[in-house]
Amino acid sequence: MVPPRLRGVEDRGGPTLAAVTALLIALLLLAVPYAAVGAQESGSANERQAPSREQVDDLVRVLDNKAQREQFLERLQSLSLAEDSLDANEPAVLSEALHLDQKVGRWLERYIGTLEGFGLQRSTLGRVALVAAAMLVVSGIVLLNNWAARVFNRKLAGPRARYHLDAGRFSSLFAVQVWAGLALAAMVFVYTLSQVYFDTLGRWLPADLLVEFAETALAVLLVLLLFATIWELCNAIMEYLGGRKGRGGNARMQTLLPLVRNGLMCVLVLFAGMVLLSEVGINVVPLLAGAGVLGIAIGFGAQTLVKDFLTGFTIIAEDLVHIGDVVTVGGRTGEVMRLTIRKIELRALDGTVHTVPFSEISVVDNLTKDYSYYMLNVGIAYREDTDAVVDCLLEVDRALREDRGFSHLILEPLEVLGVDRFGDSAVVIKARSKTRPHDKWTVGREFNRRMKYAFDERNIEIPFPHQTLYIGEDKHGRPQAAARALLDGA
C-alpha cells in the first residue's frame, strides 16, 4: 500500500523529498548485502566498490513504477526474513539470552556514578580513601555471604535427617555461592581500581574488557549454579526414595544409585562443558562431530570394554545382584562390595577383594537372593536307627526356633529330605533349613553345635573312617597267627 504522500508523487510523475528519502533508504539496504558479499570474496574492506551510475538509474526507475516498486519491497522483506531466520539458527548463549551485557553494564554505570558522587578521586589521598572504602565494603559483603552460606547449610541438617538425605547434600550449592561471592568481589575491586586510577590503569584494563569479562564470569557462575542444583536435586530424590524402601528396595537403590550418579555426572559435565565453551565463544559443533568419530574409533578398538558395559548393563537391569549379596562369579565367591557398569568387586571371607570384569561372567550364582537354605548332610553309623535320628534333628530344630536369639533368623521348620546315600562308612541323611538371606551360616553353625550335643546324649554315632585288618585263614578255616611285629604295632 502506497502512503498518501507518495500517491501525490505518483500522480505528478516528478521526484519529491519523500521519493529521495525512499531512494536513500533503498541504497542503504542494498549497500549492506553488497558490503557483506564484497567482504567475503575479497577479505578486505578496501576492495568494496560503490554502486555505479547505471545501478542508481535502474533503482530510480524501479521506484517510479508502482508494480516494480511493490515487487522490490517484497524482495526486501523476504531478504529481511531470511536474515532473521539465519540469526535464529545461530546457537544462543546464556549471556545473550539473559541480556547479561546490558544488566552488567547498567549496574557498573550506577556503581561508578556512586563513586563519582563522593568526589574523592580528584586528589591522590581521596583516591586512596575511595579504594580503601570500596575494599572494606567488598570485604564485608564477602564475609556476609560466607556467613549466610554456613547458616543456610546448617539449617538444612534437620530436613536432611528427616528425609534420609546425605549429610552433605546441597553443600555444593553453598560452595558455589561462596566462590561466586569471592569472584564477583574480586572483579568489582579490579573495576574500581581501573576507574579510580583511569589515567594509569585505563589502557591496561579498559572498561569494555572488564565488562565483557564480568559478563562471561557471571554466565559461568550461573551455569555452575544451575547444573549444581540439578545434581543435588536428583541425588536428593534418589536418596529420599531409597530411604522409603524396605531392605530389598534399599539394596536395589544402593546398587543402582552409584551407577545413576555416574551417568548423571557424565551428562551434566558434558552439557556444562558445552555451555561454558559456548560462553567463551568456542563453537562446539565441530567438537561434537570429532567426539562422535573418536567414540566410534574407540568402540571398534575396545571391544572387550564394550562387552563389559553391555554385560554389566544386562546384569544390573535384570536385578541379578545387589550390593551386599554373596555371589559366585568368574570362579570367585564373596560379598558384593561395589558395582560399576564395567566390573564387580567381591570381598571374600578372608578379606580378599576380587575384581571381576563383567566380560568374564557367564554364570551368576547368588547365594542370598530373597532367602537362603542351609544344607545338612548328616552322616550316621550303619547300625543307627534313621527314624530316631530324624526325630532328634527335628527336636534340635524346634529348640533352635524357640530360642529368641535365632527364632527371627529361621523362616520355616527344618525340612528333612530323607536318606540321601550310603557312604563308605556312613548313612547320609539330607535336610535343609530355610533362613533369611544372609543368616544361613549363622543358623547352620548353631544347628551343628546343638546336633553334636544331642547325638552325644542319645549315643548316636557319628562315624569316621574305619580300617579293618584281615589276617586270613588256613585250609581248615582256622585263623592264622599274626606276625609278632604286626601285633606289636610296628
TrEMBL record:
Segments forming domain Mechanosensitive ion channel MscS C-terminal: 377-462
Keyword Translocase on entry: no
Family annotation (Pfam families): MS_channel_1st, MS_channel_2nd, MS_channel_3rd
UniProt xrefs under Gene3D superfamilies: 1.10.287.1260, 2.30.30.60, 3.30.70.100
Ranges of residues in domain Mechanosensitive ion channel MscS: 304-368
One term under GO cellular component: plasma membrane
Alphabetical keyword list: Cell membrane, Membrane, Transmembrane, Transmembrane helix
Single GO term (MF): mechanosensitive monoatomic ion channel activity
Location relative to the cell: Cell membrane
Limits of the Mechanosensitive ion channel transmembrane helices 2/3 domain: 267-303
Transmembrane helix is among the record's keywords: yes
Regions that span the bilayer: 128-149, 170-193, 213-238, 259-278, 284-306
Membrane topology: Multi-pass membrane protein
Annotated signal peptide: none
Similarity section: Belongs to the MscS (TC 1.A.23) family.
Name this protein carries in UniProt: Mechanosensitive ion channel family protein
Organism: Parahaliea mediterranea
